[in-house]
């Protein structure tokens, strides 16, 4: 298919270690293994894809680069999310519990006794 002079791959055939060929359509790129993408890019760079004409090689290169870029961005976002979660655990971001039912039952003298006991323990 061509839109505005640009074409894209309709499918990729990959041979894996079990010597079987697998067909991937563009929507199935996420099922490709990272090693498959590296191998295909390496074959493109070395000009060893003689079964494809120049236009198909270009379309494959564009598709693989876009997919690789998506993987890299997704991994950076996941790393950032993990970093934020670990940072939140370090600084213990929790809402303060400012309302207690027990505080109504306490008298001012009991609160001063508790504060004195805490100050003694903190010394």
Structure description:
It is a single chain. The chain is mainly alpha-helical and 123 residues long. It has one domain (2-91). The protein is built from 4 helices and 4 strands. Strands 1-2 form a two-stranded antiparallel ribbon. Strands 3-4 form a two-stranded antiparallel ribbon. The longest helix is centred in the middle third of the chain and has 38 residues, at 54-91. The relative contact order is 0.08. The mean pLDDT is 71.
Distance between the termini: 78 Å
Are there runs of 5+ residues with pLDDT below 50, and where? Answer: none
Which range best describes the helical content: under 10%, 10-25%, 25-40%, 40-55%, 55-70% or over 70%? 55-70%
Q: Based on DSSP secondary structure assignment, what is the total number of beta strands? A: 4
Question: Into which percentage range does the β-strand content fall?
Answer: 5-15%
Structural class call reads: mainly alpha
Q: What is the residue-mean pLDDT, rounded to a whole number?
A: 71
List the strand order in the largest sheet: 1-2
**Radius of gyration of CA atoms, rounded to a whole number:** 30 Å
Apparent shape = rod-shaped
- Number of separate helices: 4
